Amino acid sequence: MATHNLSVYLSRFMDTNNLFMATNDLMTELQKDSIKLDDDSERKVVKMILKLLEDKNGEVQNLAVKCLGPLVSKVKEYQVETIVDTLCTNMLSDKEQLRDISSIGLKTVIGELPPASSGKNTAASSGDNTAVVHRRQGGLLVNFHPSILSCLLPQLTSPRLAVRKRTIMALGHLVMSCCNLVFIDLIEHLLAELGRNDNMSTTRTYIQCTAAISRQAGHRIGEYLEKIIPLVVKFCNVDDDELREYCIQAFESFIRRCPKEVYPHVSTVISLCLRYLTYDPNYNYDDEDEDDNAMDAEQNDEDYQGSDDDDDEYSDDDDMSWKVRRASAKCLDAVVASRHEMLPEFYRSVSPALVARFKEREENVKADVFHAFLSLLKQTRPAQAWLNDPDAMEQGETPLTMLQNQVPMIVKALHRQLKEKSVKTRQCCFNMLTELVTVLPGALTTHIPVLIPGIIFSLNDKSSSSNLKIDALACLYVVLCNHPATAFHPHVSALVPPLVACVGDPFYKITSEALLVTQQLVKVRPDSDSFDPSPYIDDVFNCTIKRLKAADIDQEVKERAISCMGQIICNLGDHLPNELPGTLLIFLERLKNEITRLTTVKALTLIAGSRLSIDLRPVLPDAVPILASFLRKNQRALKLCTLAALDILLRNYSSAVTPAMVDAVLAELPPLISESDMHVSQMALSFLSTLAHTHPSALGQLSGGAILSQLIVLVRSPLLQGGALAAMLDFYKALVTTETAGLGYMDVLRMLTGPVYAQSSALGHKQAYCSIAKCVAALTTACPREGPAVVGQFIQDVKNSRSTDSIRLLALLSLGEVGHHVDLSSQPELKTVILDAFSSTSEEVKSAASYALGSIAVGNLPEYLPFVLQEISSQPKRQYLLLHSLKEIIGSSTVAGLKPYVESVWTLLLKHCECQEEGTRNVVAECLGKLTLIDPETLLPRLKGYLLSGSSYARSSVVTAVKFTISDQPQPIDPLLKNSIGDFLKTLEDPDLNVRRVALVTFNSAAHNKPSLIRELLDTILPHLYNETRVRKELIREVEMGPFKHTVDDGLDLRKAAFECMYTLLDSCLDRIDIFTFLNHVEDGLKDHYDIKMLTFLMLARLSCLCSSAVLQRLDRLVEPLRATCTTKVKANSVKQEFEKQDELKRSAMRAVVALLGIPEAEKSPLMAEFQSQIASNQELAAIFDSIQRDSTSANMESMDTS
């Protein structure tokens, strides 16, 4: 607003009859970003608005208050001070209207001021304003806190309840930033007043105040709970419903905010909540309970109508007992959500009580009861992976088995609620069933007949809201997905009509969900003749085709209609001979549409793979060229789905795929075969393998073409492994068996090995030689007649003194790969040639020779294994390489083939497990571990026996061997290992440092791969684990290096291993850890060596997500080491690496800070707020902080996109 325009606006205020419109126009102008005021204009506008606050017209006053908000951000700081001073003065006025409007104005101004603003503030006597001031500017008022407290405390006994309420809010904000002395004064005052209990009204206020303090500063009140909780328990038993509600709300706050300190009182809280959950003195439920056994749907319909009428009769406006029940349900919800370790106890006591209260008459209370039970189910879900472990299931009652036993009781209670009039109740039921099936798939198999009528009731109910229908459909979908098809056969006739109606619903979300359910229902068709789907096919087809044809519908509905129709044709296409051609033409149209093409490709893939052999020949001439064109689109998902579709079309419709169609696809393939996307490459190679089987004549054009060139480039990539490598080997096998001209065995072999023999340059990575060798072996197994000559050539290449190391490397690896599949014992000089290669000057050639010997031995164990064992015993200089050969033999041989040699191998290995060379010991340990898997009953007890060995080397080898018996897949050794792993982990108390370190590494492997092995041992292991996180001064020594002294910490590796174990336990055994003890050691790690700091920063970020309330309680102690790391300066004369390490430390510490700030209310900590200000004022730290925040935000967005 220009200055000359301003005078026009201000002149309008001279007319007292026009004040309202003038003030309204001024407010509109002030809200514009373009407004610019000079000093004189600022002064005039401020003066005018402050004057308007005293106007007699209330509407003008309200507009003036609204002007204050945008004004304070447009004027200079001294003008803001003028506004605040005037408003504070007005609040002391005798006029009540002026006091009230000035109070609202001050609240508006404070709300607009930036946090931690340097502007002048005042602690207003109004509770509302004090609350706002403290929430936004609390850190700047530290000097005023004692006087503010003394002003606020008397207000807790004010005769006006509104004043008390605002005072409680203000105290809640005060405790977030006040010093400890003020906090102690406040708590002591509350305890004294609660102990005195003069007046029930003020007692209620003090209980509310205690709960508010706990909510805002739970980390501070924890140490006083021992005094507070007995008082709250006492007041719970007073016959005053309002007081009981506040007491139970206080318990909820303590449980959520002080999990450790409240732990001794949890059982008391649960028993109180269970008692008051059923507290309903004005209502008798006995009449309803008489019908509990009546499960007949029609009969229950009448019962529900009657019970709803009864509710109306029993409604009582003065009855406050429902608030007590609601508070109890919420408190139980808090207990269940925060005490995962008590799950078995919850299923024994809390679960039956909650289920029994599903009949609750008050809708809001019932919703909270459902929510509490939902929390119990969600708490059970994360433990599913551990508790489903076969060993764990043998232990008797786990939460999952207890839940399984309670399913009939839960279904019985839900069955009645599913036909309640209340929409909210039915939605809760559907959410509950969905979660129950997610936690226990298949749990409702025997209860389907009881539940289906309830679901259909909501789908048919004319009064149902859209959200209820969507929830009902979503629940039905999850139930269909997680139960056997046979369970639904009797109910298809009842389900189809409401589903057809929902597919035709005008609301797109209902249509979309209904199509999804229909798609799942179509899969119910059995292989047997016990169920005939033909009566329902027309209805299902017609409602879906109507949506499939429509062009003017929501994108989601379009896609789901395509998917649903694809499933219908896949499962029921044999019943639709007349409708099929027209439907396939619609699919062809959808394939040409950019928006629907991806979904259509998936649907066609489904149809092409149908066991009904649907006739797709009419559309293939048009569809295949379109699919081929998709391979050049810049959409990865489309490429992958298209390759899958083409592959299955080629397999099942090879006679209908013409050479022209194949040529169109082959023209698009070369760019897809690249290391930049291995999955796409794998799918392209799978297509080529299928092509070799179905259209071998089409491969002739590959000779000398771009596809083979791309394959040769890919085979040399260091990234080629896993599925892509397997697809490559399958293709080469298929290629040479076609005997295509120019692509025979020797032609392909020359293409693969030519570059190595050309000696132009060595390949960039050893992995390239390994991949080529595997391809050579694949070719040789496909053409066994060519094998002997090629093997002979490779042997000559290794022997030839003029061969380069690259040629020797490839020849040895190829011999190993071929020998793995083909017996090479007919080659007389093979053993000698490989042993001579052990003496090569190239480490890579020696390693390849070692691998080759082991791999060749797998092809003929009786010939080669005794030879390897003999060489290990007689050739000490080659021992390390020969042990690697033995490791390859043990890792790759079959159990049956290796069993006769176990004793001799075991004896030999034990001779070397005390070797002083750590590398050798590690190989021996791996061999011992893998050998133990072959005969665990015999060998595991033997391993255990060697724990008593006097040699620390032997003990470390044995403990390391155990690590190699643990994998993330179920194995026969698991039950034996579970019983004996405790003995191996007792080496955590071993006097030798190295033995303790390898014990920690083994423990880490178990915690990561198979947590069930160690979960029950954590109580005994954790103290030893934590003990290893301490810095031991006796292990730190000084080493003189010329004129310099260098400090060496022999305990560092041990501490690193201990902290790595702690990090792993966060993912696998969090529910078995005392998080506060854990945090003590994390806190120590924040001050340790560089490597350990990096680990603990990661842990802190992880803990911020997993246990935010516990971290919040320790926040002040965690901030200081983070601040120390971020503000440490490296000496100016330090080497470059020191600067880089410090920068990396700062970035990692800042990631932890960002994670901590993600905890709700973390910024309320005075120390954290101060640290934030320090970061903001330091240019370097601010830049790091901003970049990490941006990274975390973009990472969250990406995770949302991919979910």
Structure commentary:
With 1203 residues, the chain is mainly alpha-helical. It is 69% helix and 1% strand. It contains 61 helices and 2 strands. It has a two-stranded antiparallel ribbon. β1 and β2 form a beta hairpin. The longest helix has 24 residues. It is globular. The C terminus is likely disordered. Keywords: Repeat, Ubl conjugation pathway. This is Cullin associated and neddylation dissociated 1. One of its GO terms (cellular component) is nucleus.
Quick recap of the structure?
The chain is mainly alpha-helical.
Supply the number of helical segments: 61
Strand order of the largest sheet: 1-2
Distance between the termini: 48 Å
The stretches of 5 or more residues where confidence is low (pLDDT under 50) are 116-126, 132-140, 289-315, 383-394, 1197-1203
Structural class: mainly alpha
Mean pLDDT score: 82
Determine the fraction of residues in helical runs and give it as a percent range.
55-70%
Overall geometry = globular
> Approximately how much beta-strand content do the residues carry?
under 5%
Tell me the major beta sheet. Answer: 2 strands, antiparallel
Using only CA atoms, what is the Rg?
A: 38 Å
Number of strands: 2
Keywords: Repeat, Ubl conjugation pathway
Protein name: Cullin associated and neddylation dissociated 1
Region (Disordered): 287-319
GO biological process, one term: SCF complex assembly
